[in-house]
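Before relying on records like the one below, remember that each one covers exactly one chain. Contacts with other chains, cofactors or solvent are not represented anywhere in the record.
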Amino acid sequence: MTERIDIPFTPEDLQHAQSIGWQAVSAVAPTLREHFGNTSYEIKNGSEKSWVTYWDKWAQDILLEELASFDSTVSFYAEEGGAQTRADTYWTVDPIDGTNQYARGTAVCTTMLSLTHKGTPLVSVINDFVHGDVYTAKKGEGAFKNFSEPLHVSKREVSHAFLELYANETSAEGQALWRNIEATGAYIVRYAATGFTMVSVARGSSEALVSVRNPSSYEWDVAPGALLIQEAGGTVRSWDGEAQVFDSRKPNFIVANQVAYSALERLVDQSMSSTR
């Protein structure tokens, strides 16, 4: 499972990409903060769980314009449509992760960007625009809060873990996984805001996020936080019957501190195997 990838950028390129990413999220942050908890929403795809506001689309347009200044050969994969072409190297863009919470005024929403190459995140920027904190990572160079405070995952075992679980809870395997994780003593939380959850894991206030056959998992939700956790000392793996090198294009994954990861991998494998 040794991760090997030929990165098509120099360290200076990645630093420049991070600077462009920070410039992009900074351009939309004041307006998003101004309208936090005070905006109307529409329902997407007929689901009351999937909201979109005017500000999602507004912010995405500005983000794409800002990011385009980095490299014209880099494409985009963005949540609110209009920029879905994807070459080997692309920006993932989530203008407001946690739109439901944004419209309600619940402070777990973020703006998330990642520069990604063939499913491997190289640069991530996650902006907590409500509280004014930014979380960043470059591959191989650590993860930071506000560019100066190093992030570190916790060392708590799964029996003392706070973790978020996404699986098909109507299926036998999803129910088995839920029961098996709860039986360890872990506390399963549900923020429904992947960026907030992954930041929590990276800074050590939560221990893991597990996603197995989750139809609501998209690359713009996953790539930025996965790199943040990896660079904060965590373990990040895709899962499809067995653990694999992380690929943000795959919806099944486990991200966790190193201690909790081993136990969670076994539990996922056992739960999936027991229902086959």
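DSSP finds seven helices and 15 strands in the chain.
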